[in-house]
């Protein structure tokens, strides 16, 4: 099994990898099909317009996650990695007036946001909770082309045929290619490490170098790390009210200012270190909630956990190094790949245990490795962090990635550091293997009511104070 570190960590815009980045990416793929000469429907005339319908969780929480806006931007030709968040409002306002998109390499296409992007609450598509259907029309209103897409978490997108196994998926092809250490489970990962005398980070690096030069790998790792830290820094500078109507105040800047003021005054309680971890995570997730640039880690909703723990390592841990940061990211990505491969990182599929739980597990493993932990201790750290997120629901109030998501990332970071510390105090032997914990998460997700899987139909989402 192989998922690249750059599949797990992707730069994009908030507020959601599955509900914003995924639909935008799907729309881009649809445009590629229109450009690429894929066969149109029999009898269709000249291409003239496009439309979209959103289903399942994409419908129930699509407004709060800006899914409709993401689809429109994607059909304009924009992609998550290069989208300027500051340009979004103007582009959407212009489309509302002109009702036309002009993607490169295609004719001008009609797209009326008021009627051509539909939230279909009644039809749940069979493949996944996050489903969408994109259609193109000819000049007389006949169907020109149609495709069903599923946004399966972390910005990953699959067509209906790919999900059903009828067509090869890009990521499956990668998994089937030849790599020196193709571990598909934590048990295999530990066995390979022991047999070859390699750390998890070294094996992950060797797999990446099967496709990339060392210079490319190092450059791309630096881009990801810097994007994480830039997001933290921006979140610590910004103030005001988050969009969406809940009137949630940004708090990261105020808390950070308080922490800075207390430095050197010999007044801090020992547990203040938890406030530092929380504020780093909250800074990222406030940026995500505002539609800013973030890195899927492994999702947008959980994007604050891993950067927070990485920042904690850099700023607060004795002996932190550049190489330690690199080891952190490679190790975390290896754990994230295992979780995605064997369970899910999608809140709409398994609840927030798959998002913040996975992120905490990845961050715990990364920190443990950076601090010199053995492979066995790293696996133990990942298991401890994941185990104590099992059963966590995804119940965003008003479908916005704000309550409880922002604070939840802070607590996920604290759990990650605690898990790494506990693992480093042991010798790596423990009762519950990581593989079993991942399987427990998968089973729990299957049994979990859909009310608690990113539909905002249960939990905190329906227990909100009177305004």
Automatic annotation (TrEMBL):
GO MF term list: 4 iron, 4 sulfur cluster binding; L-serine ammonia-lyase activity; metal ion binding
Cofactor(s) the record lists: [4Fe-4S] cluster
Catalytic reactions of this protein: L-serine = pyruvate + NH4(+)
EC number: 4.3.1.17
Segments forming domain Serine dehydratase beta chain: 4-161
GO biological process per UniProt: gluconeogenesis
InterPro entries, alphabetized: ASB_dom_sf (IPR029009), Fe-S_L-Ser (IPR051318), Fe-S_L-Ser_mono (IPR004644), Ser_deHydtase-like_asu (IPR005130), Ser_deHydtase_bsu (IPR005131)
Alphabetical keyword list: 4Fe-4S, Gluconeogenesis, Iron, Iron-sulfur, Lyase, Metal-binding
Serine dehydratase-like alpha subunit domain: residues covered: 197-461
Similarity remark: Belongs to the iron-sulfur dependent L-serine dehydratase family.
Name the UniProt record assigns to this protein: L-serine dehydratase
């Amino acid at each position: 099994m192989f998922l690249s570190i750059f599949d797990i960590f992707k730069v994009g815009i908030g507020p959601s990898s599955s509900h914003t980045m995924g639909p935008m990416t799907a729309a881009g793929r649809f445009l590629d099909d229109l450009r690429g000469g894929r066969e149109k429907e029999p009898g269709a005339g000249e291409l003239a317009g496009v439309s979209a319908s959103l289903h399942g969780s994409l419908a129930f929480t699509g407004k709060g996650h800006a899914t409709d806006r993401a689809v429109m931007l994607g059909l304009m030709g924009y992609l998550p990695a290069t989208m300027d968040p500051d340009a979004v409002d103007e582009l959407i306002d212009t489309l509302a007036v002109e009702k036309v998109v002009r993607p490169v390499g295609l004719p001008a296409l009609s797209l009326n946001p008021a009627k051509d992007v539909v939230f279909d609450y009644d039809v749940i598509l069979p493949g996944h909770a996050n489903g969408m259907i994109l259609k193109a029309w000819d000049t007389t209103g006949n169907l020109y082309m149609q495709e069903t897409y599923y946004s399966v978490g972390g910005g990953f997108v699959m067509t209906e045929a790919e999900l059903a196994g009828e067509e090869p998926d890009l990521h499956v092809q990668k998994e089937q290619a030849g790599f020196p250490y193709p571990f598909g489970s934590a048990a295999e990962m530990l066995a390979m490490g022991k047999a070859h005398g390699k750390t998890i980070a070294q094996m992950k690096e060797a797999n990446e170098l099967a496709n990339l030069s060392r210079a490319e790998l190092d450059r791309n790792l630096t881009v990801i790390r810097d994007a994480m830290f830039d997001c933290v820094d921006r979140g610590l500078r910004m103030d005001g009210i988050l969009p969406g109507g809940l009137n949630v105040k940004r708090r990261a800047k105020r808390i950070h200012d308080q922490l800075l003021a207390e430095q050197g005054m010999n007044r801090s309680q020992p547990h203040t270190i938890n406030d530092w971890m929380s504020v780093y995570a909250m800074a990222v997730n406030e940026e995500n909630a505002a539609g800013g640039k973030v890195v899927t880690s492994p999702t947008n909703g959980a994007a604050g956990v891993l950067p927070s723990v990485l920042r904690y390592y850099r700023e607060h841990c004795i002996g932190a190094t550049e190489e330690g940061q690199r080891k952190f990211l490679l190790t975390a990505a290896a754990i994230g790949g295992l979780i995605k491969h064997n369970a899910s990182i999608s809140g709409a599929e398994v609840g927030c245990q798959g998002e913040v739980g996975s992120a905490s597990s990845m961050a715990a493993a990364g920190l443990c490795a950076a601090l010199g932990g053995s492979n066995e201790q790293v696996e133990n750290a990942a298991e401890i962090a994941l185990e104590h997120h099992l059963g966590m629901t995804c119940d965003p109030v008003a479908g916005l990635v704000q309550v409880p998501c922002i604070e939840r990332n802070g607590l996920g970071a604290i759990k990650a550091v605690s898990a790494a510390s506990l693992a480093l105090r042991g010798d790596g032997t423990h009762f519950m293997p990581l593989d079993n914990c991942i399987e427990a998460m998968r089973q729990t997700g299957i049994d979990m009511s859909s009310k608690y899987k990113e539909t905002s139909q249960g939990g905190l989402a329906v227990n909100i104070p009177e305004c």
